[in-house]
Fold these 2 entries.
Entry 1:
Amino acid sequence: MTGSSSWGITAVALVSIATLAIGAYGWRFSRTTSDFFVASRSVRPALNASAIGGEYLSAASFLGVAGLVLAFGTDMLWYPVGWTAGYLMLLVLVAAPLRRSGAYTLPDFAEMRLESRAVRRISSVLVVAIGWLYLMPQFQGAGLSLGSVAGTEPWVGGLIVAAVVLINVLAGGMRSITFVQAFQYWLKLTALLVPAMFLLAVWSGDGSAPPSDVVVPGDLPGDRWISPLSTGEHPLYTTYSIIVATFLGTMGLPHVVVRFYTNPDGRAARRTTLVVLGLLGLFYVLPPVYGALGRLYAPDLIAAGRTDAVVLELPSRMIAGIGGDLLSALTTAGAFAAFLSTSSGLTIAVAGVISQDVMGRRFRGVRAFQAGAVVAVAVPLFLAVVADGVGVARAVGLAFAVAASTFCPLLVLGIWWRRLTSVGAVAGVLVGGGLSGAAVVDTLLQNQHTGWTGVLLAQPAAWTVPSAFLTMIVVSLLTRRRLPVNVSRTMVRLHTPEAVELDRGPHPL
Amino acid sequence: MTSEPSPPRRVRITSPRAAAGRPQKVNVTSEIDAQTRLGEIYMSSLLRAQLRLAGLVIATLVVLVGGLPLLFLTFPALNDVELLGMPLPWVLLGFAAYPVLLLLGWLYVRAAERNERDFADVVERS
């Protein structure tokens, strides 16, 4: 174990140093507030797509999916499919209009479209809440990974990730993070692809036994593991709720949305999203391979409740000697890249909102942004230590459910339905956020329920998202006198191509 | 027609055919800027075209991908169909779904850019 742990520690150190070094390359370009928030809106689609991919593939994608597949089988493949399809929904519904809105953050967009400070304040609270809910499992995953390779306490890994992220964000903001995240996408892909090829070779050398033939004591029988809709209570509802949360939640994640403002124009925003779709599809083929092979070679992880560690431990279990240790070190490096990139993006998004809306008026400059970043990281780091035991992918899944129940209806109706009023938006966000937030709190407290109550609370999206949409539409129709004054001008700004010279109202920047 | 004699106003006389030959400058961008009825019509036609396109892509996604759980529920025998040594649901969800998503995205981007080009052509033709 000492040999493998020293390789693992070396891998973590190398990734951290590489992240800081590439970030430092970007520090030289970061001068203005615009650099810090949106990299001065000048990132080309290829670089930006790699950065978005790097940012989006979090601990849940890198560790969580394989762990879920190992434990629960086929139905869990819906998570990666849904996280990719979420980008398709984002592409067709919000990508170009969101970029054309010219706003910095989601609260900026909400205020611009609905011309209301109240909507802005509620959106700010939500961005911070979703960001923290999403940051917490990143830090937990980091603690788990470092504990797995080096036997450290759970909080050490989280602290290292938080420190590296803070240094980069404090020094370089969005501009330096863009380079870091683009690098991290390719690192993550390599870190899963190369070991997977070796593992598949070993597996076929062993006679390629199907994973479903394995009898795991105390766990699902193989035929139920391999069949869709055969695990848990009410699997059809659960599957469709996962579909709703992931398909619609992506567009409401604050760190995903903030990336769109770094595109030069609406057309580039669309093309970037298309490249992201390809990059995500390429990546998401790999984690289920680890989950399936894990059932053959590491079934004891299921009983131990450590399925999230399967990606980290599988290579050294399947391949003896230094080769396996090196491959395990590679997946550990990829996992740390996942924590670092996602946490960086989330920290930027949350820090932007905190510095603009909590620390006083807009554009108090770089200092406010940096102070915001410290707060953005400290709270979820604390939560990660306290709320132990909620699976990485579960916690991220809840963040998606909240985003789908709040920002998704706000964005979709705000962009495509001119009769949305600020009262309707507030009502819908409160209903969607309240219902899904209650389900989140219930899960974090780890209450036990049986029957439909438990199922509905574990996967709330299928009923909270329609409630939010319905509330927004009904209340808007009831308050149709309170239509925003400049809604026509805003629609021109959101939907017309930039090449056409039109009056789009005052530019917010 | 008044009784006071005044010098006759100069009147510019042009052939009606010449006026027809020279089209009047109708600038749609200014109509949109002034938020006239006409401008609103142009805007809502762009919005409707883009929304129809988005709806089409989403409907295809819902049928092709969103229909899979119902398909698996209705035909449990699909699980016994093996493709490349894996049960069909694994092949569909683990591999086949991603190229479909990418293809839908590619078709969408092409069509959305075409809608915008059409809008720009109409609006700037003046």
Note: Chain A touches chain B through 50 residues (CB under 8 Å).
Entry 2:
Amino acid sequence: MKKCFLRLQVALPLCLLALFAFAPLARSGGLDAFRNDKGEINVSGGTAHIPVMKEAAKRIMTANREVRVTIAGGGSGVGIKQVGEGLVDIGNSGRAPTEQEIRQYSLHVFQWAIDGVGVVVNKGNPVKSLKKEELKKIFSGEINNWKTLGGQDRPINIYNRDEASGTREVFWEKGLEKGNISLKANVVVSNGAMKSAVANDLYAIGYVSVGHIDESIAPVALEGVLPTIGNVKSGAHKISRGLYSNTKGKPQGLTGKFIDYLFTGEGQKIVTDHGFIAVK
Amino acid sequence: MSSGKRVDRIIEQGFFLAALWSVLVAVLIFLFMLVLGLPLLRSGQIFSALTRPWLPQAGLFGVYPMIVGTLAIVFLSLYWAFPLSLGVAALVSVIHPRGFGRFLKKIVLLMTAIPTVVYGFVGVFLLVPLVQKIFSPQGGMSIFTASLMLALLICPTMILIFTDSFESVPRSYHEAVDALGGSPVQKLCYVLLPCARQGLVAGLVLGMARAMGDTLIALMLAGNAVAVPGSFFASARTLTAHIALVTAADFDSMEFRTIFVCGLLLYVFTSALIVCTRHWGGEKGARF
């Protein structure tokens, strides 16, 4: 017994030591590719991509100070145009480039995440399913009472996102089909703020990235399809889009390594950490 | 020159440079906003910016709803905060100057150190559901909710200035009232309030400036709708929250320029308030 304890006493610190020794190695697994590299990667385009791009850039630049990554916004159209004209190395877009764009600029397209957006209400709300027409009318202010939808006789409080939000862009484009949003809609600044707003307002309706839906709020089925990660992946849930990075020709050197990094375990972890759905 | 004198001069010059620098920064910020807002000012679109609604899809970038929202939230919060602060200040400095009053003043001092995000956070989780349940099902995030929290934020500033001005009333005045057999309440109403009038104005105006400049409470609690608010239970957006919400990525869009109009407006409003304090606040106000 005593011997066993003694062995444990020796083994435990050894184990810990091993853990600490290998931890940096394990963490920088995806970043090893950048060792001994030097140069600059310029990224522009979709704004929804920016948080992931920033985090990836931060980690790469911390691991190797000789590499510089610059990230600019501009939107999907700008991203495709700039990469096509050789102004940047990577052009991000929140839509797949068209056949014509791919041909004209000889683009290589990489989809590294899916951004799905689900409609949510308060947990106490009996309305858990909506038709697309109803959703559009709610957000335009045409339907303004839950009674019309089978709920309580209470006004509907709409929660919207700020204009810089990529989530808002997808929802407006695919959920509302670019329909009007009432001016009286409340505006919150993040997926997190949306969650706490809807969780604290019995008569609220809002929308969040599917990755953010948890038990504090209730997802609403749209045309019978619940916003779950599975449904987004299978394509049954329609309010979603891929997040793409495009390069002119086959990506080479640093640019290629940056794209590869997005598909490593660590890169995809960054993707899920920011509320998107990983593709691997 | 002795070495002591030289050290004195170096320190003096150091302070002078520091003062110069902070004045310069304030002026530079104003100039910066003026330069970036200039295209809008020069083209005469400034008036439409001040009177029109905010409809980016229709090409309208007016900040009128935000001006209305700001004023509504500021005045409503003053409506709550002024009587409350006056009452607390009277209690602390006249009615219970020792014991409970001293304890209360310590709490007030502590309150000045609470960051606004804490107020905002508490508001989202406690006040919003409460307002919704008691007052209006639509008013969870509204002018009303934000003004209550904002009142709490500006109270300490006002209370401290009020107590300060009560305490600067000469001791002999107190003794005169006591000699005449006046009660503390009579002392407050007939002697202290009239004597401390300037301090009251100063506190009120500074509280107002503080309420106007705060961003986070309105951003988290007022709802930020871009419609012109129709009631106190309507969602509204303040100028500060608007600046926080519209982060235009490019440098020459109309959105970007109107942000600087908002900034200029806030700058002018608060400067005007400070000038008012100096003017009506007399000696007391001149200290701010």
Note: Strands of chain B lie at 54-55, 60-61.
